């Protein structure tokens, strides 16, 4: 009986607050969230789970967009504590680790493999990659002003652990009327790290933890929301990097290769078992070089609008979101991209919930399906993610991910 009365009191308390973008379910809660995923934009599960795998190079080249062949991966882990005393006072604390990688191989290589090249023609194509790993510690504060405006401020201390933004590769093919073929290739990468990775060991983490934490930066997230109609609430949200984090070490590597052939078919026919290309190519894999170098790093800038529409009550919520982000902000190689999301949440008897959504986030299309179980004291959320840089392939299981969240409180 006491548990029933407590549940009713909590429900009545939060119902009396009126509509909000995100209505809290507990006065006090502690939670853990973990998510991870990976994808490509070329092959889905149906392409692989067949009796005979056929690779049509021309079809492959035609299916790729302007970004070429793209692979990505991400992982996040978050621990948080929230105190929801009233609509005028909500306080939260969190710490998380998040990382992502993105690799793109130019479409030109696939066009070359599919169509070949003409004499006297030069073909060039490139590849790029970036990645980052951050540890974040922050707090959020929510209050209400002017009766209808809800404001949430989230200052975050951002500690970069690893960062790469200029890994690249280039290949050039040249053919001449005489039949000569020349090819050159070069690739280089530089990764900045919080600790010296040369002869790295687990003991280095303990010895350098305070030095690493002292080099963090600062960004500020915010959201301003208000009810627009009886069942519609809207908000403006953003994240503004203010002070960059610092990385003090780097590791880099440069590789190159070249090849030249004057009469390919003649050499193949008269090779006599020896390597027909001996002395006509060379390469250098390079050595990984370690050193000290300061790199200033920001998390992506974000700005957008979102809404919560409850046409039939709190048990059915539609959440559209539209905005944009800038990766590597305040730099000459900043990358701008739009973002959107549309999710539907259906909750039955405040115990079982379902989520269906589609989104474009961090340059990747995501389709998601989720299930929620809420016993008031414990809430469990699980989501299956289907991802790809290509919209159609995000439905064809070209990538996948998962989210699991657990909340405790009352």
Please describe what this structure looks like.
The protein has 410 residues and is mainly β. The chain is 13% helix and 60% strand. It contains 6 helices and 18 strands. The chain has a 14-stranded antiparallel beta barrel. A hairpin with a 2-residue loop joins strand 2 and strand 3. It is globular and about 80 Å long.
Structure at a glance:
The chain has about 400 residues and is mainly beta. It has helices at about 1-15, 45-50, 55-65, 105-115, 200-215, 265-270; strands spanning about 30-40, 70-85, 90-105, 120-145, 150-175, 180-195, 215-230, 230-245, 245-260, 280-285, 290-295, 300-310, 315-325, 335-350, 350-360, 365-375, 380-390, 400-410.
Keywords:
about 400 residues, mainly beta, disordered N terminus
Set out the fold topology.
Elements: H1 2-15, E1 28-40, H2 45-48, H3 57-63, E2 69-86, E3 89-105, H4 107-115, E4 122-145, E5 149-175, E6 181-193, H5 202-213, E7 217-229, E8 232-243, E9 245-261, H6 264-269, E10 281-284, E11 289-297, E12 301-309, E13 316-327, E14 335-348, E15 352-361, E16 364-374, E17 378-388, E18 399-409
Antiparallel strand pairs: 1-2, 1-18, 2-3, 3-4, 4-5, 5-6, 5-7, 6-9, 7-8, 8-12, 9-10, 9-11, 12-13, 13-14, 14-15, 15-16, 16-17, 17-18
Helix pairs in contact: 3-4
């Amino acid at each position: 009986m006491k548990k029933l009365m407590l549940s009713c009191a909590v429900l009545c308390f939060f119902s009396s607050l009126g509509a909000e973008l995100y209505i809290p379910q507990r006065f006090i809660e502690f939670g853990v969230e973990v998510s991870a995923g990976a994808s490509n934009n070329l092959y889905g599960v149906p392409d692989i789970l067949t009796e005979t795998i056929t690779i049509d190079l021309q079809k492959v080249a035609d299916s790729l967009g302007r970004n070429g062949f793209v692979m990505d991966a991400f992982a996040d882990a978050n621990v948080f504590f929230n105190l929801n005393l009233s609509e005028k006072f909500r306080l939260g604390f969190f710490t998380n680790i998040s990382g992502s990688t993105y690799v793109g191989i130019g479409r030109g290589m696939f066009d070359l493999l599919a169509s070949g090249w003409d004499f006297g023609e030069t073909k060039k194509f490139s590849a790029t990659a970036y990645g980052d790993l951050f540890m974040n510690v922050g707090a959020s504060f929510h209050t209400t002003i002017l009766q209808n405006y809800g404001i949430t401020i989230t200052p975050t201390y951002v500690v970069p652990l690893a960062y790469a933004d200029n890994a690249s590769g280039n290949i050039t093919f040249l053919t001449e009327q005489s039949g000569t073929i020349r090819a050159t290739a070069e690739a280089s990468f530089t990764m900045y790290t919080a600790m010296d990775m040369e002869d790295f060991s687990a003991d280095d983490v303990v010895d350098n933890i305070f030095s690493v934490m002292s080099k963090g930066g600062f960004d500020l997230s915010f959201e301003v929301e208000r009810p627009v109609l009886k069942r519609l609430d809207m908000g403006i949200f953003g994240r503004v990097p203010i002070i960059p984090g610092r990385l003090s070490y780097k590791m880099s590597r440069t590789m190159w290769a070249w090849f030249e052939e004057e009469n390919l078919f003649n050499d193949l026919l008269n090779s006599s078992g020896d390597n027909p290309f001996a002395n006509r190519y060379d390469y250098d894999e390079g050595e990984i070089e370690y050193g000290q170098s300061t790199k200033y790093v920001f998390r992506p800038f974000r700005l957008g609008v979102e809404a919560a529409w409850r046409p039939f009550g709190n048990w059915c919520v539609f959440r559209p979101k539209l905005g944009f982000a800038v990766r590597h902000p305040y730099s000459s190689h900043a990358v701008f991209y739009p973002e959107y999301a549309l999710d539907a949440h259906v909750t039955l008897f405040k115990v079982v919930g379902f989520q269906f959504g589609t989104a474009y986030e961090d340059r990747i299309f995501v389709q998601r399906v989720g299930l929620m179980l809420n016993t008031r004291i414990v809430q469990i959320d699980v989501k299956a993610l289907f991802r790809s840089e290509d919209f159609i392939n995000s439905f064809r299981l070209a990538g996948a991910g998962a989210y699991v969240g657990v909340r405790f409180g009352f």
